[in-house]
Structures are given as structure tokens and as C-alpha cells.
Specification:
The chain folds into two domains: 2-55 and 390-400 and 426-450, Urease, subunit C, domain 1 (Roll); 57-377, Metal-dependent hydrolases (TIM Barrel). Helix content is 32%, strand content 22%. It contains 14 helices and 17 strands. Helix 5 (170-183) links the parallel strand 9 and strand 10 (187-190). Helix 5 crosses helix 8. The longest helix has 18 residues, at 221-238. The chain binds zinc ion. The site of zinc ion has 5 residues, from loops.
């Protein structure tokens, strides 16, 4: 079936927009034209978008949907429902917060069997390598198998809080990086210095300190700076493609940029929480804002915005991770409260409002950091990430000027809490289309409709990482 989208605007360089019509057939764009073009006239169905702004659907490269295994926190049905409501048309799910972790082909297939019937938007999987996985003498073959299955990237931790997915020392990381370099698949690293954080945590806990800022003191900027430096050195030494996930510290970005300018194959993402909040907010919000890495200073936050605008940071992902609410977020101690914030639904509205509307980034840069850059990193740039003929018709339709206030009860993931509670954003998702079909529509009266669970398809890495 040929479906035509008319009366809409798309980005046209900088923060400009221009009128367009889109023709979609079999889930892909076949024409992106000026209004009134003959090419779009052959459509059997026409959807009038009322002059609204249309952007490429968001690819959130870092979510924890916890399925199967930790479904009291999130599951694939609720996670992808929230994604659809946030303009996210493809998510990339982490390998470490589901059971069994995605460290072998059998584990990957077990996970797919559970999540495929629940997915409302398209998805890739992260594979992983942990100390647990390295205990299997066949770990190299397992890594090769999951790379052949088309995982987007391989996740490793320099510091992990999970018994089911333990962190790795420098020698183990070196071995893994040599393998991934050979396989042509990138590695995503949680980069914080294990020894430094363990020593500080032990000391602060022994002193009986319980304040949110004591938790922050256990994971100082230096822990991230030194770990990022180590990973950059290992990237150079092994030839592996290394990506730092959830970068939070300004000076860690300085280190990364230095190495990249010297030719190292390194990149980083940051997350809305590090762009929006500082240690002062952690003081007032406590566990609601507890994440690892932890939010840093106002100077760090400003440095991240600068790096995002300048292209030093490759893209924005959310690290969406929900704890059971309220049980796991209010345990009586900041040390045991679950770390993680559900954000998949709020990232695009946040970046539109605080990034584009406030002039920190252009609309064009927004589409790069939310869609085209993650598509390239995960090797799906021939299918996703842009509004262009031949690519999947993944779209988000926006009410650009609508101002609205975040209320956790209005979110769509399983455990509804947010450090953004009460914050107002300018720009709101009106509808989301995956492969030309609506997966989310918000009507004039606020009524919301969702596409079917199971519509979302698994996507595989198609091209080697650059
Ligand atoms: Zn994460």
C-alpha cells in the first residue's frame, strides 16, 4: 500500500524547516518531495499532518527494559509503549539487566523469544562480555556468535554493581577489545575507576555517611576521567572501536576529544540527566536522581552541552532504567536505593525544549544526535535514522509550540517516577510512526492510542562500525 503524508514541515538546514510531502510504500520512504509533487499523487491513502514539524524517529541507543528476569522494574511491552509515546521508533536494549545476560547465541535467542511478541517499536540488542561470561572457555566463540547475530555493540563494565554481569580488569578488557577489533563490532564501556570508587565507598560507609552527596563523593569526576583515559589507551593499543556510554564529566570529555583528535577510534554518548541536573539537584531530589555515573557540577553540565553542539559527543541516549517504585527507590539508605531513571519517553521533548527552543543546538543537530548518529554507530544507517528514500518510514510528529508539564502518572513505562516531575517542556509528541504505521497517536482531546504489541521488529547491525 502507498501512503502519503502531506501538509508537514521537515528540517531544512540549521534550525530552518521547509514544507514537504512524503510517500511511503511497504514501510519505506519512496519519495520526499516539495508539496504538490506528482510523485506522491499515486498514494491510496493520505494523512494530513496539519502543518506540523516531522523529524526522523528517535533511536535510543541505551535502554534497560529488564526482560526477561527483572520485570518488576520494566518489561518490553511497557518500555516500548513509553518509547512510542516519546517519539522513539527504535531502541537498543542492554544485555546485562535481563536474565540470562546476552553473552551467547543461546541466551540471545532466549531473550528474543520473550521480547519479540511484546515490542511496539523496532529494536536492536546489545551483546555483552562480563567476568562471568569469561569463565566459559568458549567465550571467544560466544562473542563471535553474538556478533554474527547482528548485535549493535558489545557492553562491558569497568565498574558494575551486578553479580550476574561482573566488571572486568584491564587485562580482561584488552583481550575482549582484541576480539571485537577482529570482529568489526564496537564496544560500549561503563567507564568508572573500580578501585577508586570501591575505596571511597568503603570509607564513606564506615563513617556512617548517608547523604545523597556522600554517594556523589564515592564516584568523583576523577573516577570517570581516569577510566576514560584507560579505555582510550586500550582503543589505540588494540585497534578496537570504543564508545563511552553515559559520559557525565566535562574533563572526561576533554580527554576523549584529545584522543579522538589524535586519531583514536573513540566516541561517547551523554544522557538527558547529565545535561539537565547537577549535584545541587541531587541534594534535593535524592534517590529520584540516583544514577551511575552520578550527576556532576554546573560546569560539567555546561561542558557537555558545548560538546554536544560541537560534535565532540556523538549522540544522546537515555540509560532508561527504572527501579521498582517506591520499594527499590526508597530503601532507607542512598547506598542501597536503586540507581536509575526512566527517561526513554522524555528525551526528545527535553532536547527540543532545552536544546533547540533555547538555542543551544540547531534542529539539524537534534536530528543527528537523536537519529542519524546512533544509526551509524549501530550499523543500521542504510535502514534507519533519516527521512530519505529507501529508508524505513520512522517518523515523529510534533506539536512544536505546545507547553506541557511532566507528571509521572502520565508516563507509560512500568514504574512511574521522574526527576523531571513538575518541569515544563515546550514541544510535545503528537504521533509516532514506525515503518509508516502509527504506533502512537495523541488526539486533540488528549486521548492516546497505541499500535499493537508485537509489531516492533528486531533490527540487526548491517555495516561494520566506522
Ligand atoms: Zn545503562
Amino acid at each position: 500500500m502507498r501512503r502519503r503524508f502531506i501538509n508537514l514541515r521537515i528540517p531544512a538546514g540549521g534550525s530552518e524547516t521547509g514544507p514537504a510531502e512524503l510517500l511511503v510504500e511497504d514501510g519505506r520512504f519512496v519519495a520526499v518531495e516539495a508539496p504538490g509533487s506528482a510523485a506522491t499523487e499515486s498514494a491510496e491513502e493520505t494523512i494530513d499532518l496539519g502543518g506540523r514539524l516531522v523529524l526522523p524517529g528517535v533511536i535510543d541507543g541505551h535502554v534497560h527494559f529488564d526482560d526477561p528476569g527483572f520485570t518488576h522494574r520494566e518489561n518490553f511491552e511497557t518500555g516500548t509503549r513509553a518509547a512510542a509515546a516519546g517519539g522513539v521508533t527504535c531502541i537498543v536494549d542492554m544485555p546485562c539487566t535481563s536474565l540470562p545476560p546476552v553473552t551467547s547465541r543461546a541466551n540471545l535467542q532466549a531473550k528474543l523469544a520473550v521480547i519479540e511478541p511484546k515490542a511496539r517499536v523496532d529494536f536492536l540488542l546489545w551483546g555483552g562480555a562480563s567476568e562471568n561470561a569469561l569463565e566459559d572457555p568458549d567465550w571467544r566463540r560466544n562473542l563471535e556468535d553474538i556478533a554474527a547475530e547482528g548485535v549493535g555493540s558489545i557492553k562491558v563494565y569497568m565498574l558494575s554493581g551486578m553479580d550476574t554481569f561482573r566488571d572486568l580488569g584491564r587485562d580482561q578488557l584488552t583481550e575482549i577489545l582484541r576480539e571485537t577489533a577482529r570482529l568489526g563490532v564496537p564496544v560500549g564501556v561503563h567507564a568508572e575507576d573500580r578501585d577508586m570508587v570501591h575505596a571511597l565507598t568503603t570509607r564513606l560507609q564506615a563513617e556512617g555517611r548517608e547523604d545523597p552527596l556522600d554517594y556523589a563523593a564515592s564516584r568523583p569526576p576523577e573516577a570517570e576521567i581516569s577510566a576514560v583515559r584507560t579505555m582510550c589507551e586500550l582503543a589505540v593499543e588494540t585497534g578496537a572501536r570504543v564508545h563511552i556510554v553515559h559520559l557525565a564529566t566535562g574533563r572526561a570529555l576533554d580527554v576523549l576529544t584529545e584522543f579522538r583528535e589524535d586519531g583514536a577510534a573513540v566516541s561517547a554518548e551523554t544522557c538527558p540527566q547529565y545535561l539537565a541536573f547537577t549535584d545541587e539537584d541531587l541534594c534535593s531530589l535524592g534517590a529520584l536522581l540516583k544514577t551511575a555515573p552520578v550527576v556532576k557540577s554546573a560546569a560539567d553540565r555546561d561542558r557537555l552541552w558545548e560538546g554536544l553542539a560541537a560534535g565532540e559527543l556523538a549522540y544522546v541516549a537515555t540509560d532508561h532504567a527504572a527501579g521498582q517504585w517506591p520499594e527499590e527507590k526508597h530503601t532507607g539508605s542512598i547506598w542501597t536505593d536503586y540507581g536509575g531513571v526512566p527517561l526513554v519517553e522524555l528525551s526528545l521533548p527535553y532536547l527540543l525544549s532545552e536544546g533547540v527552543a533555547k538555542g543551544r543546538i540547531t534542529l539539524e543537530r537534534l536530528t543527528e544526535i537523536t537519529a542519524s548518529a546512533p544509526a551509524r554507530f549501530f550499523g543500521v544507517e542504510r535502514r534507519k535514522g533519516r527521512i530519505a528514500p529507501g529508508l524505513d518510514a520512522d517518523l515523529v510528529v510534533l506539536d512544536e509550540d505546545e507547553t506541557w508539564t511532566v507528571r509521572p502518572d502520565d508516563l507509560h513505562n512500568l514504574n512511574r517516577y521522574s526527576p523531571f516531575d513538575g518541569r515544563s517542556f515546550r514541544g510535545r509528541v503528537r504521533a509516532t510512526y514506525v515503518r509508516g504505521e502509527p504506533v502512537y497517536v495523541r488526539a486533540d482531546d488528549g486521548t492516546e492510542t497505541f499500535g499493537a504489541a508485537g509489531y516492533g521488529r528486531r533490527v540487526r547491525r548491517e555495516t561494520p562500525v566506522s
